[in-house]
């Protein structure tokens, strides 16, 4: 297996992942190898498509590349238009699965029901949404939740570091944040902004690499995104403790890093799972390897029993057909 933390330090993900063979246009069939050395082993052919969270993307990048080695005749395409953008495509029936850094919303559930799409939710890993500054920033080590509110909620003023602590520089804070289609934005809005407006001067992007680069380049910048993006760039970024707790594997897993610890999800179209052998096989591979890949890229694996339950839930879908 590749060293995923090393690979991510250079680049986590482009706008889409297209891995696997591109020759087949079949929606998914199982065949048997005729070669004498591999006779009797099930081989899957077909296409699988997904979209959604850029936070979940590092896990999926690793899974997709590893899966391409296991099933080279399956083409898996995964976009990163954000959790909300991914659900829009999922509702339109354009994708077989949707990655999400927040639970599905009631209005999205209603839209899926109206569209006649049944789905299954699977948890993939835990994340600690990380607040970061440049390594060159030598004054911020810790912020409270109240500090985050004061910084990030729009109040009509020009925010300065000295507003938080009079000993900090009298310099304007430069903000970077996930775009409004991002589940990370939604989660931050829920637990920090509490539906108040995000500071209007923030640079927004669904691409977390854009946020990373902006914060790296400005000593007065601050931003937030998934923990894996901090881990991959910790030589140039500094993570900020929240109420004295730094995001680490242990604090994320225990829930001690509160309120910014959260689960990560993948939502699968049930019809795709039952009618498309490639989609079912890829989802099974994802659940079997999500924990290992989550740890490899900097997230926190679920307890093994949770993955076992998810695999049983997946198997039950086809057994009920």
UniProtKB/TrEMBL annotation:
Output the Pfam families linked to this UniProt entry: PBP_like_2 (PF12849)
Where is this chain primarily localised?
membrane
Q: State whether keyword Signal applies.
A: yes
Record's keyword terms, sorted = Cell membrane, Lipoprotein, Membrane, Palmitate, Phosphate transport, Signal, Transport
Quaternary assembly: The complex is composed of two ATP-binding proteins (PstB), two transmembrane proteins (PstC and PstA) and a solute-binding protein (PstS).
NCBIfam families xref list:
ptsS_2
| Record family assignment | Belongs to the PstS family.
Q: What is this protein called?
A: Phosphate-binding protein
> From which lineage does this chain's organism come?
Bacteria, Bacillati, Bacillota, Bacilli, Bacillales
């Amino acid at each position: 297996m590749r060293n995923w933390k090393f690979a991510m330090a250079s680049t986590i993900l482009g706008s889409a992942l297209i891995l696997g063979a591109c020759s087949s246009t079949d929606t998914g069939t199982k065949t048997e190898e005729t070669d004498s050395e591999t006779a009797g082993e099930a081989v899957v052919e077909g296409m699988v498509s997904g979209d959604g969270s850029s936070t979940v993307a590092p896990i999926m990048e690793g899974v997709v590349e590893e899966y391409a080695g296991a099933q080279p005749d399956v083409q898996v395409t995964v976009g990163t238009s954000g959790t909300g953008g991914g659900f829009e495509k999922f509702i339109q029936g354009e994708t077989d699965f949707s990655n999400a850094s927040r639970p599905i919303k009631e209005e999205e559930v209603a839209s899926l029901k109206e569209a006649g799409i049944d789905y299954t939710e699977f948890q993939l890993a835990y994340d600690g949404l990380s607040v970061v500054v440049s390594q060159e920033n030598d004054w911020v080590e810790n912020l409270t939740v109240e500090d985050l509110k004061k910084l990030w909620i729009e109040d009509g003023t020009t925010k300065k570091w000295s507003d938080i602590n009079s000993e900090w520089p009298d310099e304007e804070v430069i903000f970077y944040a996930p775009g409004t289609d991002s589940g990370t934005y939604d989660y931050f809005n829920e637990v920090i902004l509490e539906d108040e407006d995000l500071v209007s001067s923030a640079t927004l992007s669904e691409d977390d690499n854009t946020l990373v680069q902006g914060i790296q380049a400005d000593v007065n910048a601050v931003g937030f995104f998934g923990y894996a993006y901090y881990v991959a760039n910790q030589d140039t970024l500094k993570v900020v403790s929240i109420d004295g707790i730094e995001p680490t594997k242990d604090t994320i897993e225990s829930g001690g890093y509160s309120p910014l610890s959260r689960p990560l999800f993948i939502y699968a179209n049930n019809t795709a799972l039952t009618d498309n052998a490639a989609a079912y096989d890829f989802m099974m591979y994802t659940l079997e390897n999500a924990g290992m890949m989550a740890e490899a890229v900097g997230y926190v694996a679920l307890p093994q029993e949770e993955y076992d339950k998810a695999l049983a839930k997946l198997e039950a879908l086809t057994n009920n057909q």
